[in-house]
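Exercise 7 asks you to align residues with tokens for two separate proteins.
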Amino acid sequence: MAIVTVRELTPWIADLMGAVPRWVPMALGGLLLLVVGATYEARKRDVRRLRDAVARLR
């Protein structure tokens, strides 16, 4: 199902990429990486807190 969806959306995405300036896809990719990195750091902090709390229970 996902493969069919991607196959059907590919021409639309290609047309969209041609309609926007070249820097827009790069900026969106950078923004995505920034969000993923921030989420990863927050999860890492939460796991560290949980580990410390469990260690205090012992």
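Second protein for Exercise 7:
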Amino acid sequence: MLMAVMFIESAIDKSLHWHFYLQETTQQGIPFPALALAMAIAVEVLGSIALLTRFQLPLAALMLAGYVFVLNFFYFDFWNLSGQEAIGLRKEFLKNLAVVAGLLAFILVHRRDQQQDTI
């Protein structure tokens, strides 16, 4: 549930501060920034709903994991920096990898539960 809350909060923030995030998306070099931002909001909302309802849970978790994984390389490119800024970005990068791992763990747990139900 907390994982879903994180994505819902992010989608709300992006929606409320569209122009700020559009500018940030553009600065990060993400292609088609307006479309990418709209898709990010959709992925975050739909993925969160799917997590909360367990509807197509493996697909939703994989979609969110891929989304976080890819964006991690655009937003937290610590390898291009040095000093304190690099350290901060590296920590954020690693936190996001932990989120990806958590989402992938949802898939494994879901599959295990399904296998136990069939036994």
